[in-house]
Amino acid sequence: MANSEKRAGGLKAEVRMDGDGLRVEGYAAVFGEETDIAGLFREVIEPGAFRSAIDRDDVVFNINHEGLPLARRRGGKGTLHLEEDAHGLLMRATLRADDPDVQSIAGKMERGDLDKMSFAFFAERQEWEEPEGQTPLRRIWEARLQDVSIVTFPAYEGTEIALRSRPQIVPADPLWRLRQKARLLK
Questions:
Q1: 137 forms bridges with which residues in the sheet?
Q2: What pTM was estimated for this model as a whole?
Q3: Reduced 3-state DSSP string for the chain
Q4: Which of 22-26, 70-74, 163-167 has the lowest mean pLDDT?
């Protein structure tokens, strides 16, 4: 399976302590906003892109896309709540306050030092537009979700969705985009 793509940006996570633990809520993705991906292409996540993934995929909530899961959503159930609304992909979780991984981030989250969101995905249905003289535009119509993460350093502060790791997006192979288009035509 190909490497997943990761997008991060200026997506705020909201944190509250309540009787059940540390409640985390935020948007891991925003719909309809065009983002420049390292000058290679522009990208838009379309509304409904995660509709199937929410009930189908085993999605984890991580810190910086790695480590043990803080919460998890399997087949529409679990400790991680995901939903799409008009704005984007909303995530909610109540984390155990006595979990050492949660304790390591709780103060940082409450202070706002750790407050940006990101998501890792595999594009399943996408469309490429290549207007003459313009940077290509990629529209993501359907994606599989791997994780939603709270991140320390978003790739671009001024965007809501941005490149996290270039090698995971565009392999060095110059025919990559042509193969992506051919896959769509099947």
A1: 42, 129
A2: 0.75
A3: CCCCEEEEEEEEEEEEEECCEEEEEEEEEECCCCEEECCCEEEEECCCCCHHHHHHCCEEEEECCEEEEEEEEECCEECEEEEECCCEEEEEEEECCCCHHHHHHHHHHHHCCCCEEEEEEEEEEEEEECCCCCCCEEEEEEEEEEEEEEECCCCCCCCCCCECCHHHHCCCCCCHHHHHHHHHHC
A4: 163-167
- Residue 161 binned pLDDT confidence (cut-offs 50, 70, 90): very low
Dihedral sign for Cα 151, 153, 154, 155, please: negative
Q: Are 124 and 180 in contact (CB under 8 A)?
A: no
Tens digits of residue pLDDT in 38-82: 888 888 999 999 999 998 999 999 998 999 999 999 877 889 999
- The answer on pLDDT for 159 being more than 90 is no
Write down the residue that tokens 């981030």 correspond to: 105
Q: The tokens of 97 are what? A: 């306050």
Calculate the CA 71 to chain-centre distance. Answer: 15
